[in-house]
Amino acid sequence: MKSSGWTKCVICKPMNKAILSFLLLIICIVSKAQYAGYTLVSDIAKFKEQFSSASQKTQTIKSDFVQEKNLSMLSEKITSKGKFWFKKDNLVRMEYNSPFQYLMIINKNNVYMKDGNKENKVATSSNKLFQQINKITVDCVQGTALNNTDFKFKIFENEKGFLVELTPVAKNLKEYFKNINIVVDKKDYSVNRIDMIELSGDNTVINFINKELNANIPDALFTIH
Amino acid sequence: MQGCSSLYNNLQKTETDKTCLQKFKPKFSSALYSAKIDVVGKHLSGLLVIKKMPDSSTRIVFSNEMGFTFFDFEFQQDGNFVVHSIIKQMDKKAVKKTLRKDFELVLMQNLENKTSYSFKDSSFLYTAFPQTKGTYYYITDLNCSQLVKMQRASKSKAVVEAIMENYVNDIPDTIDISHKNFQFDIGLKKLER
Question: Same structural domain for residues A25 and A40?
């Protein structure tokens, strides 16, 4: 009995220590690897200032986009493509052309949608959730996302860009989104990618490619007829 | 015989051959549809994924074009129904029940194990599957070579009518579901990926 107790002591104590340090290591790795390759930015004020001063210089954005919705449980991916235009203030046009036709225009507080031949006009003021979701899109590209009180945020960075992690605070947004992550290019603070993560774990990523900043974009593109 | 107010009550009963319906049962390994839903004056569009899972259940996920999920339903092989997610605005018992029945009608799951009877008139063959409430009808030409329409009916009248057309590789290109007693129409067009 005695000897087995002694053995337990000798073997287990270092074992416990080993397990403990192993666990600590895992915790460290996990917390660091929250976003692979990114580290947490501590000087948020500085980031905010740079982000808003850079986005003040951005009057328009013209871009192509590739959107991917991942249905994790179904192991399915829905990929769609289209064109994106943004003009200050609050003017957005998203035109999906593959594998379906869909047009969405945000003009200030109004949204116009057209699927196939069916047109739908929504005054965002009449639909709170829609208003909030549109605000995200506009905020993301306009650089005002950090002032949106519907979210709390954390900033991460790597050598190429910043990752802004938005966590919803507003109750109705919390019911749909776990996080919305925006990847911003370090060279011009323009948005490269928006990742909307639903509570189920499914997510939708929009990648902006072939971006052109401050190109001349006619207002007519954002007219709601 | 059913009462004289019954739907199709005057038709001649015939031998049941529900195996002929098997060829119309869609084989959704994985299909993407563009979807339009019109509900009492409101128009909703989006994308519908129908996928057969390894456990033989069928998942139907509806999201808008921008990726926002409206609902995620599972239709199990034994007839059970699981709601994995649904947005608050649609999370109502009547809505879920209606959608479940509408999709069950077109999925044609497990028909071979259900009781049925058939009857015909001069142009069509009707195969009926009585449910706890109401009946599902699959209406074909007399040779059962073409699925003309599907119906869900109460004792006296059709409540829902649906069509599946232009099958390519056993998957219909067009699915339309339409309610008779209020405006609720679902239109699906298959998308090529």
Answer: no
Question: Is B133 touching A (CB cutoff 8 A)?
Answer: no
CB contact under 8 A, A120 and B43: yes
Provide the pLDDT for residue A10. Answer: 42
**From CA B29, how far away is CA B165, in angstroms rounded?**
17
| CA proximity to A148, closest of A157, A160, A139 | A139
pLDDT confidence of residue B1: 41
For residues B32 and B191, give the distance between their C-alpha atoms in angstroms, rounded to a whole number: 6
Number of domains in chain A: 2
Q: Is B34 on the interface with A (CB under 8 A)?
A: yes
Range with lowest mean pLDDT among A56-65, A203-212, B33-42, B91-100: B33-42
Q: What percent of chain B has a predicted confidence (pLDDT) above 70? A: 97
Interface probe, candidates A95, A204, A205, chain B, greatest B C-beta count within 10 A: A204
| Radius of gyration of the CA atoms of chain A, in A | 23
Same domain, A40 and A85: yes
Q: Which residue of A has its CA nearest to B192?
A: A99
What is the model's pLDDT at position A192?
Answer: 92
Q: Are residues A44 and A75 in the same domain?
A: yes
Which pLDDT band, with edges at 50, 70 and 90, does A6 fall under? very low
Contact B49 A74 (CB under 8 A): yes
Sign of CA dihedral A128, A131, A135, A137: positive
* Nearest CA among A96, A56, A49 for reference residue A213: A56
Which band of pLDDT confidence, cut at 50, 70 and 90, is reported for residue A129? Answer: low
Does B53 contact chain A (CB < 8 Å)? Answer: yes
- Which single residue is written with the structure tokens 């509900």? B39
pTM, rounded to two decimals: 0.84
Asked if residue A15 has pLDDT above 90, the reply is no
Helix/strand/coil for B32: strand
Domains in chain B, ordered, with CATH? 12-190 (2.50.20)
Q: Cα(B102)–Cα(B87) distance, rounded to whole angstroms? A: 19
For A77, the domain range is: 36-222
| Cβ separation A99–B51 shorter than 8 A | no
